[in-house]
Structure to design on (389 residues):
């Protein structure tokens, strides 16, 4: 697929190459296409019957489907609430359950594209810093592609289920003193110094392209319409940015006229974006010591902060906080009322929905989608806190 890299800051464009930030101003990059020429081809492919998957949308992905490193990602369920909806008094609430992906989290959407890109450019090793889900996903896809995987994790701050996945898939694990932000800083330094080492964290624009396919799937699953509001847990802020890009592209391709309001949800103990949004700031102030039971979003220096702030502001959405108590309550309600077992970070979207109703951010007649980012078995210790075994 023909595409260009474009800086989100200075808008300078670059030919595809192994860079993660703008050489001119240092800002993040995004991938752009010639949407006018893509429209007819994509519409024709969408009119062809077939199962939902990330690769169903290969015509608007920046890698070749011929090289796809896939283990069956995408095509996750969109279930309509039957009981929890009564607590928010709205017409339609859906749960997009990306915990149904192969390694149990939404990361697989982006990783299939990122690892395919690594193969295309001839990388031999792939690298990430992780709070857990990224490492599990990268290790699995690297194993499929025959690449070596190197994972940097914050020492003592990763759920054992996620770490076990990375180890089982053969990744080399390096523990870093400090939090995720320290691990990512070190990973970026390693990637800049060593040729053939490909970084796949969410600052990598190719990974964002895979994650945007959630928007396309939701559009198809809702009968080719977009929801009014989408709630997304926010940690490093790549996913809310990616999903917004997907909805924007649906509009650019003239497949819809509408786009949803994007509402990001951060844990109160790790909420630099929510604070910046509430104060109307143009930049995010780093939190040096984020702490929350929702370990997957325990991030104090979100790399994609600028993309995320733009997403919520352009969509007329918001970024709100949920306390650990609100998150664990939502986790329990989701399991007990809807049959969906989500890890705490995933339940943040539902906690955000409940809070948004109290704050009058949503209306009774609106169609709402809560993104469930990871399966509850990823963090069994957290779940054990609200059950008796």
């Amino acid at each position: 697929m023909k595409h260009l890299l474009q800086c989100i800051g200075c808008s300078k464009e670059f030919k595809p190459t192994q860079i993660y930030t703008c050489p001119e101003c240092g800002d993040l990059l995004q991938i752009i296409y010639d949407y006018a020429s893509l429209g007819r081809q994509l519409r024709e492919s969408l009119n062809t019957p077939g199962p939902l998957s990330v690769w169903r949308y290969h015509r608007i992905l920046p890698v070749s489907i011929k090289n796809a490193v896939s283990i069956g990602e995408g095509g996750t369920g969109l279930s309509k609430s039957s009981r929890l909806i009564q607590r928010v008094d709205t017409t339609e609430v859906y749960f997009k359950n990306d915990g149904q992906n192969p390694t149990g989290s939404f990361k697989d959407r982006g990783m299939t594209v990122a690892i395919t890109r690594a193969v295309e450019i001839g990388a031999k090793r792939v690298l990430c810093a992780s709070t857990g889900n990224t490492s599990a996903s990268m290790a699995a896809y690297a194993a499929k592609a025959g690449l070596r995987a190197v994972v940097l994790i914050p020492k003592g701050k990763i759920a054992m289920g996620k770490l076990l996945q990375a180890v089982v898939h053969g990744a080399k694990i390096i523990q870093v003193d400090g939090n995720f932000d320290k691990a990512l800083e070190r990973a970026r330094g390693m990637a800049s110094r060593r040729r053939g080492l490909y970084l796949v964290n969410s600052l990598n624009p190719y990974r964002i392209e895979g994650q945007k396919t959630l928007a396309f799937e939701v559009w198809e699953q809702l009968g080719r319409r977009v929801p009014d509001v989408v709630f997304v847990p926010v940690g490093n802020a790549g996913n809310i940015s990616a999903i917004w890009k997907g909805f924007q592209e649906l509009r650019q391709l003239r497949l819809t006229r509408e786009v949803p309001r994007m509402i990001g949800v951060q844990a109160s103990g790790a909420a630099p974006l929510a604070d910046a949004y509430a104060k109307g700031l143009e930049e995010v102030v780093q939190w040096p010591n984020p702490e929350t039971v929702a370990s997957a979003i325990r991030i104090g220096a979100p790399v994609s902060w600028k993309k995320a702030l733009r997403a919520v502001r352009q969509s007329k959405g918001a970024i709100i906080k949920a306390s650990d108590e609100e998150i664990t309550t939502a986790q329990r309600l989701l399991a007990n009322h809807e049959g969906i077992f989500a890890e705490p970070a995933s339940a943040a979207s539902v906690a955000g929905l409940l809070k948004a109703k109290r704050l009058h951010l949503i209306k009774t007649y609106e169609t709402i989608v809560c993104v469930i980012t990871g399966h509850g078995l990823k963090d069994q210790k957290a779940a054990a806190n609200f059950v008796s075994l």
About this structure: The chain has a mean pLDDT of 93. The chain has three domains: 4-67, 78-104+207-384, 107-204. The first helix runs from residue 35 to 46.
